[in-house]
Amino acid sequence: MNVSALLTSAGINIGLCMVLLSLYSILRKQPGNVSVYFGRKLVQDHIGRNDPFCFDRLFPSPSWIKKAWMTSEEEIMSVSGMDAVVFLRIIVFSIRIFSIAAVICIFLVLPLNYFGQDMIHKKIPSESLDVFTIANVEAGSKWLWAHCLALYVISCSACIFLYFEYKSISRMRLEYITKSAPNPSHFSILVRSIPWSAEESYSNTVESFFTRYHASSYLSHQMVYRSGTVQKLMNDAEKMYKKFSPFTMTSVVQNRKPCILRCGLCGGTSNSFKKLSNEESRHVEEKPSPARLDLDTSKKECASAIVFFKTRYGAVVASQLLQSSHPMIWVTDLAPGPRNVYWSNLWIPYRQLWIRKIGTLLASIVFMLAFLLPVTFVQGLSQLDKLQQRLPFLKGILKKRFMSQLVTGYLPSVILMLFLYAVPPTMMLFSTIEGPISRSGRKMSACTKVLYFTIWNVFVANVISGTAISQINVISNTKNVPTLLAKAVPRQATFFITYVLTSGWASLSSEVMQLFALLCNLFTRYILRSKEEPMTFTFPYHTEVPKVLLFGLLGFTCSILAPLILPFLLVYFFLGYIVYRNQFLNVYITKYETGGDMWPIMHNTTIFSLVLAQIIALGVFGIKRSPIASGFIIPLVILTLLFNEYCRQRFHPIFKSSYSAQDLIEMDRRDEQSGRMPEIHQQLQSSYCQSTLTHKKGKAEDSNHCTEIDVDRDVENIEPALARVNITSYSDNTVDINYYVQTL
């Protein structure tokens, strides 16, 4: 690829970004799009809708950019929580480190690469991009020390920035834990693999066990009931059958009076509906007796329960201790927050989890290897000479200058990006099958899978640029990996530049446009003619975190090898900083909080990127026959690994265990002295409510205690079509369940 092909790709993406950003600036001002671009403010801030017409609506303006830039970190924290702040911190870190790398590499390394050989240079537009990489430097050149020095500066700066970020985020996490309002999850643990007994129910087994072995701290418990789509449909059918079982079909038909109603689908009339009399209605609404309710719920109990404790310290101690000499029964973990619980997975037998994890791991590997086919096809497009040899009929088309620039500079990254859209939903499905107990755990597991997938298929597979068989040979010969990477990374650096343009710049523009939500809103308003509802989504950390970290890896590995990528990366991170802040302020809502659990993943991936860049540089200096530069890289790798180990020992325990005995005891004492502990205990009884009959028993109260709630049914990101359940509990141990469906 030459410079003109790169400029063609850059021009297409710049034009696309400008069009989409200008269109967004206009669309966000239209009253009909408020539910798309201000969903969070409509739901959480309850902003009003202004409909007066003004000509300013028809013209783009940069006011949203100024608003996003000027918003403080404290405002982001109050609006979207600590997870959003941590995500933005990795973008700020990338801006800082790659600004330093750009200054050093553009003004020091890039000229040395360009004049690395005695050759007659062409005009810049016709110049190949390879002359701007380290591949253009002669073997044995004395100027390779500049590349080694630049790598030292970048690595040391990155470690310093990482240390201060890790320290700052750890302090923020401790403040989040100690100064936040009392959280039910601090007093709760999840117990799984409860042993079955023929003499008593699971609920009685839990009560007797914790009363005996945790008598001083045990408060109460709540059983988990079988859930899932099939189980919910069976429960609904059973409830309806029990309600209408007293009526025979003949009595209903005899008492039926013609009732002409308009059918909603075909417009015809129907007389198949009957309004029950008052006596029959009272009979249908008759509430079950407590004995019958206990019998029904005991049949649906599974071997899991949420156990509440009187103090935070008691809950944490119980969650970390082995409850039985048999490690596969009475398994305890800290309970997720009430809005973070993934109820559908709590009933999964504990003995199945390891099988599920192995199965999803194998499925992920198979999916990753199968993805090598589109990667190989994309690499064929980026190599024009091989493409013409395999497809001779394209020679006439590819002789045209613009078409050849389009095929080599733009099309490969677009095709790869389209294939990658299928990866996050697939990995989310695999993570769900694994059986995580929380929504945040499911999303973090999907994030890790997507990260590994993108690093392998976007970086490693494209770098090696061969068939699937050749890549398997590379895996079998690990000793040759540094040399192979050293040869291949400079050759594929041009593809990575176009990938940053296409998958980076264009994806941010489509993110701010919210194309899917916009189309759904237009379809709802003009086709279905239904009432406009706010469209709320949670932030897709499992897609955006791997994307940001992948671009960081490309920046570190290509900084001294192909410095031309750094300006494009800086534009991406600056634009991402504005776009993501705007989305956190206006679009995405926060359903649950993890306290920055994503940061260790970001830190470890950045360290991996640094070490990988150093290993590739070691291989490059070996190929270029520069033993002095190679010798200086070895201690840099060792120092980077030692720095990572220090951070792991110093900061990682704060994210792993989350709580210290000192903080827990101080928080418990503070609540006891202020007199809030009885109120907290009372709120615990109604904090966790499953979408089936919830049955709580314990020492504190031996009754059903659940306030009126509105529970979303196992759907997190498909907000326009929610099946909801209203559960109202009464003092006489009866429950009335009313279903209503809000469809698109």
From TrEMBL:
The chain crosses the membrane at residues 6-27, 86-110, 143-164, 361-382, 402-423, 450-469, 548-580, 601-622, 628-647. It comes from the Eukaryota. The keyword Iron does not apply. GO terms for molecular function: calcium-activated cation channel activity. It is a multi-pass membrane protein. It is found in: Membrane. The keyword Protease does not apply. Residues 5-165 form the CSC1/OSCA1-like N-terminal transmembrane domain. Residues 186-345 form the CSC1/OSCA1-like cytosolic domain. InterPro entries: Csc1-like, CSC1/OSCA1-like_7TM, CSC1/OSCA1-like_cyt, CSC1/OSCA1-like_N. Keywords: Ion channel, Ion transport, Membrane, Transmembrane, Transmembrane helix, Transport. Residues 356-621 form the CSC1/OSCA1-like 7TM region domain. One of its GO terms (cellular component) is plasma membrane. Belongs to the CSC1 (TC 1.A.17) family. This is CSC1-like protein RXW8.
